[in-house]
Amino acid sequence: MVRPVSRPYERRFMAAIVGTGSVLLMALNAPSTARAAGPCIFLGPATGGAHGLVATRPHAVIPTGGNGCTTRFYLDRIGTSSLYALTVRGPGWHGTVHSPATRVDGLVGLPELLERNLSGGGHADLVRLRERLEHGRENALRVRLLLGTILIALALLAPARAIVGFAAAIAAALLLSAFEWTSLALLGILTLAGAMLPRRSLWFFFAGYLVVLVAWPETQSLALLGPHPWGGGRFYGISNELETMLLAPALTLGLPAAPLVLLTVGWSKAGADGGGIFVFLAAYAWLLVGALRGRAPVRASNRLLLASAVGVVVLGVLLVAADAATGGRSHVTHGLAGGPGRLAHDLWHRWAVSWHGATGSPGRVLQCAICLAVLAWVATRRPRVRLVDALLIALAVSLLVNDTPQDVLFWGAVAAVALRRAVYAPRPMRRFAPLLLALPLLLFAAGCSTSKPGEATTTPLPSTVIGTVPAATTATATVPAEYQNGDPVAGKKVFLSAGCTGCHTLKDAGATGTVGPNLDQAKPPLSLAVERVTKGRGAMPSFKGQLSDKQIADVTAYVVKASGGNPNG
Fold first, then answer.
1. On the CB side of 95, how many CA atoms lie within 13 Å of its CA?
2. Tens digits of per-residue pLDDT, 192-205?
3. I need a labelling partner for 350 at 20 to 30 A (CA). Which of 15, 55, 193, 358 fits?
4. Share of the chain residues as helix, strand and coil, in percent rounded to the nearest 5
5. Fold of 481-563
6. Which residues contact 181 (CB under 8 A, 6 or more apart)?
7. Alpha carbon distance, N-terminus to C-terminus of the chain
């Protein structure tokens, strides 16, 4: 037997290959390892670079830290909200941040920040953006109470007007958003006025709505009735709530409107997703079955029903695949692309979120129970109504594929009652017309204005005075004694260390924050500076308790002096 004398050399050769390969892999991987050494996110204010707002879900955990970061991301929480002031410092970062995943200049979500799916160079007014986000969050419940009251009243008294009213409410919110108006009374008046338009106007609504979603996505994002971007979930397009409100108007137009409606609710580039495709396909399939049979769909054969159900699934998958192939992106395209396992996981997650949404509080449970009872009542009425049955099927599919059952059940119940009554009670009850026209004014006139967020409120003054008016005196704002005579030099150190630079612009301090007011332009008097620091307002928290009285006196004295404000005002 011949001994392989070369074996030791072979081992050394293989060891050299493995060693060289390992060194090369480590060298090639060094840059990516440096990039991956932490998220490069740090909590606290910063100056310079690009600025923006980050919206997170409640109780979101933000990973922080990082080594060797060429680009650093600083997050400074705004008050107690889920909004953070973002500062990005690194080569080439300037202006305001933006991301194709949010489509709102100046606003990004936490996933976009973690995935670095954002860039600078924007020109957003972050002060106005923050005010609009906060105003939308604060008035979300009042908007739903207002529109719910109007549409329920229309469904009971003038049901045909209620069907158009759903589209009118969405159009009114878009119109106000385009002009940056936030008046709830005006929203109610425009909704009622739009509800009086003829049914054929719905064609123009869907066409115009599609154009707005594609060309001006921020108009829908920041509308009073929209996707609620302040919550860090959906930032643009058609939410489950809007999708449900569109059902009755879309079905009223019948099968000819199906292509336009499906494009509007299913095209992800317009801000919709595949979930809406399946919801509306199910409704249109039921209408198609009835049209093919020439009689009520309830008597259709099991074979035809099975074929229509399979057709809905197949056609829905094909439409979602076509959307993904043309660059569309949504949770449905991701779920289908991930295969059956990913799809099953996504559905299970959505059902868990839905259950929590429906049972998260006693009020939610009561609301859902009442809406289910109303839908059950509508479903058991005789004779059958094809449009109503199509709506009920669409609602059932929506509860299966979407994750906000409280919105689907509430607006679905109102729409079902309106459709049912529109068939058997088409004549409006004209004697109640004055009440309907005055409804939004009666409910929301007090405290509502047509001003934009942040604008001053005009106080009416008399033009003619009868009698003697006391001589006018100059009012002097009173500043508590403990906040007077502060030291501006010490106050500058407080300003730089307390996080003020992340939100405000003040030339003397080198601060360029754009989340809060520009102090160089505002020139606040001492009384206003003390009030804002001690009590807070809007996104600015109160610093009383965080800073000593001496520090508050010092920092307010510095702000007034550096900005040119009135130290005696």
1. 13
2. 999 999 999 999 99
3. 55
4. 60, 10, 35
5. Cytochrome Bc1 Complex; Chain D, domain 2 (1.10.760)
6. 450, 451, 452
7. 106
